[in-house]
Amino acid sequence: MKWIIRIGVIMFAVFCGIKAVPEEKASSGDITSTSIRYVALGDSIAYGYGLSDRKEQSYVELIRKNLETKYDSVFVTNFGENGMQSGELLDILTNPERKEYKKYRATIKHADFVTISIGSNDLLHLIQLDLNMEEMIKRDAHKFDEACVQFAKTFPKIIREIRAVNPDVKIYADNIYNPAKGIDAFSQVYSVADAYINRMNRGFYPSDEYVLVDIKKCFDGEKESMVNLSFKGREIDPHPSEKGHKKIAQMVIKAMER
After folding, report:
1. Of 63, 155, 165, 258, which has the fewest CB atoms closer than 10 Å, so is most exposed?
2. Strand arrangement, sheet containing 170-174
3. Class of domain 25-256
4. Which residues of 169-207 are buried (b: 16+ CB within 10 A; e: fewer)?
């Protein structure tokens, strides 16, 4: 009889001990609620190309700094890659033969939120600077049309693949801005390019699967240009300036706080 009483006392003590330990709410990645994991996907905009110090000035790093004021531990992985197109990003996420496949998926699996900057290069790689912009688009209109059609098919697949890897992750996607906005010398480029950029942006379909960060509307509403648009030989540099990256970071942070 005594051993039954002793066992009862031990079980009661263990039960009380368990109840006395405060419960910690875990987020994805088996980390405490005071930690957060952020993954940035996309092209050279996410990478921070063209900045004097991308590790300090890019919108990804600015978001990191903001998160560090709110969380004890912040883990950031920036997969931004110069020249990446939407089709390549989808291939990395879905093709096991790609060397990046496992790393991308494993990192996304444990992410609390993901940002995406993609689509600009789908159009940009078609531009030939040795031709007049209007003549080029008239000649290659079918290529630009096809790029818009393909992006509208590819982007939803990217979102759904991320969701398949991590159903609970929050996704914030930047749409495509017009780099010639607010620059008088490129007013012709702006008007010609804007029609296709607007068509591309329709590919960011309305959905509860992700949050659209409307960079196009934001940059169009600014009095001064948010980019460092320049032409270098046969290449064009349409990347955001330091001010542009600050604006992108502010918009993503605002979207996160809603």
Report:
1. 258
2. 73-78, 35-42, 113-117, 170-174, 211-213
3. alpha beta
4. bbbbbbbbbbbbbbbeebeebbebbeebbebbbebbeee
pLDDT for 235 equals 61
Beta strand pairing status for 113-117 and 35-42? Answer: parallel
DSSP label of 82: T
DSSP string, 121-134: HHHHTT--TTS-HH
Q: How far apart are CA 63 and CA 250, in angstroms?
A: 8
Q: Where along the chain do its domains lie?
A: 25-256
| Exposure b/e, 127-137, CB count within 10 A at least 16 = b | beeeeebeebb
pLDDT at 84 exceeding the cut of 90: yes
